[in-house]
Design goal:
By secondary structure, the protein is of the alpha/beta class. The protein has a single domain, classed as Rossmann fold. It is built from six helices and 13 strands. Strands 1, 4, 5, 6, 7, 8, 9, 10 and 11 form a nine-stranded mixed beta sheet that branches. A two-stranded antiparallel sheet has the order 2-3. The protein has a two-stranded antiparallel sheet with strand order 12-13. Helix 1 runs antiparallel to helix 2. The longest helix has 19 residues. The two termini are 34 Å apart. Bound molecules: uracil. The site of uracil has 10 residues, from helix 6.
Length: 212
């Protein structure tokens, strides 16, 4: 697994305001969206393209366009939804599938409670959106799910990661033979006993949408 930690002052600036507990939900949502657009730029560096013949007002030239099938963006519900707009702003022609996963707050294990994805993902490049890579359980399950359906290139986009989560994700995906990239805004210090990233930003779903 390739890990890319974005390194840009605007990303660090927006992350700081996301982390700040005084930031309210509307501001948090807007900042998360902006931040994801910056991360999406990094995450799509290897997006598949093909040559495309066009005519400029001055003459013919060969450019490029996104290849078909178009990339599939998969936000993991619920917190991944807060990353969707920022991602499709940069990839407006991508298709979007949804995966509902939740971690059990006692065991920290991920369970799937919803799935709206094409059955056949053969040859698809997928971008999985999940703001917090904590224990790695949810992302590992989501990536395995997509690979089992044929996806052959996966990029996970996260706002923050715990080092323990990156290690656990790497360990649990060793048997997977498709390229996997992790793009993140920051790698934090550690995971606490309650499964929260420290210093982190708290519960991303609650910060985005309130406690429900
Ligand atoms: N999920 C969150 O929303 N926050 C954390 O710190 C860890 C997992």
């Amino acid at each position: 697994m390739r890990v890319e930690q974005a390194n840009h002052p605007l990303i660090a600036h927006k992350l700081t305001y996301l982390r700040d507990k005084r930031t309210d939900s509307p501001t948090f949502r807007r900042l998360a969206e902006e931040l994801v657009t910056l991360l999406a730029y990094e995450a799509t560096r290897e997006v598949r393209v093909e040559p495309f013949e066009i005519e400029t007002p001055v003459g013919p030239t060969t450019g490029i366009k996104l290849s078909s099938p178009k990339p599939l963006v998969v936000p993991i519900l619920r917190a991944g939804l807060g990353m969707l707009e920022g991602m499709v702003r940069l990839l407006p022609s991508a298709e979007v599938g949804f995966l509902g996963m939740q971690r059990n707050e006692e065991t920290f294990e991920a369970i799937t409670y919803a799935n709206r994805l094409p059955d056949d993902l053969s040859g698809r490049q997928c971008y999985v959106l999940d703001p917090m890579l904590a224990t790695g359980g949810t992302l590992a399950m989501a990536i395995r799910y997509l690979v089992e359906r044929g996806a052959d290139d996966i990029t996970a986009v996260t706002l923050l990661c715990a080092p323990e989560g990156i290690k656990a994700l790497e360990d649990s995906l060793v048997d997977i033979d498709v390229p996997i990239t992790l793009v993140t805004g920051a790698v934090d210090d550690h995971l606490n006993d309650d499964g929260y990233i420290v210093p982190g930003l708290g519960d991303a779903g609650d910060r985005l949408y309130g406690v429900v």
